[in-house]
Amino acid sequence: MSKATTTDGRSPGPHLADSHDVIRVHGARENNLKDVSIEIPKRRLTVFTGVSGSGKSSLVFDTIAAESQRLINETYSAFLQGFMPNRARPEVDVLDGLTTAIAVDQQRMGGDPRSTVGTATDANAMLRILFSRLAEPHIGPPSAYSFNTASVSASGGIRVDRGAEKTKTVKATFSRTGGMCTRCEGRGKVSDIDLTQLYDDTKSIAEGAFTIPGWKSDNVWTVGLYAQSGFLDPNKPIRRFTKKEMRDFLYGEPTKVKVNGVNLTYEGLIPKIQKSFLSKDKEAMQPHIRAFVERAVTFTTCPECDGTRLAEAARTSRIGKVSIADACAMEIRDLAEWVRSLDEPSVTPLLTALQGTLDSFVEIGLGYLSLDRPAGTLSGGEAQRVKMIRHLGSSLTDVTYVFDEPTIGLHPHDIQRMNDLLLRLRDKGNTVLVVEHKPEAIAIADHVVDLGPGAGTAGGTVCFEGTVEGLRAADTVTGRHLDDRARLKETVREATGALEIWGASANNLRDVDVDIPLGVLTVVTGVAGSGKSSLLHGSIPSDAGVISVDQSPIKGSRRSNPATYTGLLDPIRKAFAKVNGVKPALFSANSEGACPTCNGAGVIYVDLGMMAGVDTPCEDCEGKRFQASVLEYHLGGRDISEVLAMSVTEAEEFFGTGEARTPAAHRILERLADVGLGYLTLGQPLTTLSGGERQRLKLATHMADKGGIYVLDEPTTGLHLADVEQLLGLLDRLVDSGKSVIVIEHHQAVMAHADWIIDLGPGAGHDGGRVVFEGTPAALVADRSTLTGQHLAAYVGA
Fold first, then answer.
1. Which of 164, 190, 548, 660 is the most exposed place for a label (fewest CB within 10 A)?
2. What is the pLDDT of residues 596-638, one digit of tens each?
């Protein structure tokens, strides 16, 4: 086709539609952003850098992606919008040139025990259809192969109105074939309660036999109920109960009884414990309650389905010699080869779609996973890459993809593969926005936006915009540290002992024997899926006194903040109470001191149905959360709301000297500053923290624990290059104070700083699970026989 020309024969100028080649942000003020205005090129890869807390996520996720998704939601009918998440318009003056935004964050997948890698993607659904068509013996529709679907059947009479006729009773039957194992209800595990943790059977109830937290002899709702129910002899030692008494004691059906004139419901101890403790979120429990539950309850593989979650019919229905349980237990790369070997024209479209999904897993570096892996056990990086899978083969173009540190959890060997995927998305004509800290990922950017200069209130401005080379020459924190390289230690510490692990075989580990040195900084490394977490989280003996700090989410509402989570608020409240001669409860926004209008929330929430709900600052307390009378009490010239508005750094100075000197509070604040959280405000909601910030907050809390062995899971997650040096200093101080620190890590700076390295591999999944190197970092670099050794040697310039 010839090129279009104007009437005078000349080629026309650029089309007006082609002039919209940037996303324009003007006056962004979300969170700590300070009136930010930038232009981001479309159909390019833009990396956002800056220290932790500088405002990267506020700009990319909370402003650009949030407004795009809000505008898309508004295109649906009011009825549909009522079922969708409500989004308020971000604090920004102008947002031009937005395209459809797909945000792929690092939030872990739901921890529901029924959710697996297969159910979280489309793979399980396609497998169930495949088996319902090809498997022998045929047992029913796809639901017959689903461990989330129970078999049910019913029959009886139903009343039917038919026009002008009278109501008729019609006999009807209903049945549905499901694949759920009836014993474990599709969970694959059954719980067993250790009765010795509930009571001392040598004592009677009257003598205080119960060892359950909170079950005191004067509590009529617990001990009193069993003692005076009439079913049991309260003065007889429990081990001397008759069979009937023991049955009533442990499994008695709910029965109305009267105790001290009060009507109560008596039921057996086992169901009562299940309702009181096991039905609640373990993370939300108080520490001593959580410890009790972990002691008293053990989870074992279901003996009926052998952990497959499936009923017998589903387990015995096969394609060739493979059942759906076998297929889900295979590593995905092996499953992909099995699917490729199937040749059945009647289901060719299904096989093609399933093959494409499984190949995407392999391509993205997750071929070592299996479809039956519980989704809640995936790391943040693995969860993010699983979410990427549905976008890799998409035919959509001119989409804005937003990624939050996609290299998290990736070995240096795997980062190049991730870079290739990001570039492939860009080359299809999409805009790719990436929040990143790794120099290897920053290096591939077409455009870089560096935020800072500091964190929290010291950040929120654009320090640099331009190319990677321009950033390298710029006098910003990121520019100065972009080419930083840690050096190998000249001398390493000597171990004071060893943590012995023998015959470790969890997940893909191959009967591993390893002695982890104590009294030093040990780094466990290896490619993603090589068995690092299985070795440390799944194989260390429970009685080793290990304090494990991982990246699992912190449970908490918008009322929870660093001050409440770390216990910092307790000494602060007591200090305020002592100076002013009043009760500590007055200085809690969740107790007596709360503003009665907003109940201590600081905002009034108005639900507008299908439209975004509106948070408006409470007019009575002006968002301070406390009653006006409480704010009249001062400590060191500040009221409680002003203290909660301080950053950790400010508060550390405030509580360290003068009238406000509070040693208990100061010690906690020192630990928060040590882990690099000096920029957080004491009252900042926990829901606004990133994965890396949550882990460092947990580390600060655990630093006061008495245990001598710390296991940290990728503590550099979310850390800027400039902050890694501070983290290494913290790890050194922990070791020098007599602690043993074991770190799962891919960051070469941490490897170079280690006293001892344990490298697992050589590959992932069934290609890993072995110790391929043990020794000092210098020996690893000199050896260069492993992927880690080769990359570390290149990093230190050896």
1. 164
2. 888 888 777 655 444 445 567 787 888 888 888 888 999 988 9
Q: 618, 717, 631, 622: which is closest to 675 by C-alpha? A: 717
Confirm if 61 and 404 have CB atoms less than 8 A apart.
Answer: yes
Q: How far is CA 522 from CA 475, 498, 740, 763, in A?
A: 35, 11, 8, 21
Judged by average pLDDT, the poorest of 319-333, 454-468, 616-630 is: 616-630
Average pLDDT over residues 125-151: 93
How far apart are alpha carbons 715 and 695 in whole angstroms? Answer: 7
Distance set, CA 153 to CA 175, 311, 793 (Å): 4, 16, 65
Distance, in Å, from the CA atom of 770 to the CA atom of 508, rounded to the nearest integer, reads 9
**Per-residue pLDDT, 560:** 83
Show the 3-state SS of 329-349.
Answer: HCEHHHHHHHHHHCCCHHHHH
Q: Distance between CA 454 and CA 782 in Å, rounded?
A: 38
pLDDT digits (tens, 9 = 90+) for 251-293: 888 888 887 777 888 888 888 887 777 665 555 566 677 778 8
Q: How many whole angstroms separate alpha carbon 391 and alpha carbon 406?
A: 14
Contact 87, 69 (CB under 8 A): yes
The enclosing H or E element of 422 equals: helix 412-427
Handedness of CA 534, 538, 543, 545 (dihedral sign): positive
* Residue 768 bridge partners (DSSP): none
Rounded-to-integer distance, Cα 393 and Cα 123, Å = 14
Q: Where are the alpha helices (DSSP H) in 243-366?
A: 243-251, 269-273, 287-296, 312-316, 324-329, 332-341, 348-363
Calculate the alpha carbon distances from 666 to 650, 653, 656 in Å: 11, 8, 6
Distance from C-alpha of 730 to C-alpha of 739, rounded to nearest angstrom: 12
Contact status, residue 514 vs residue 501, Cβ threshold 8 Å:
yes
The amino acid at residue 27 is G
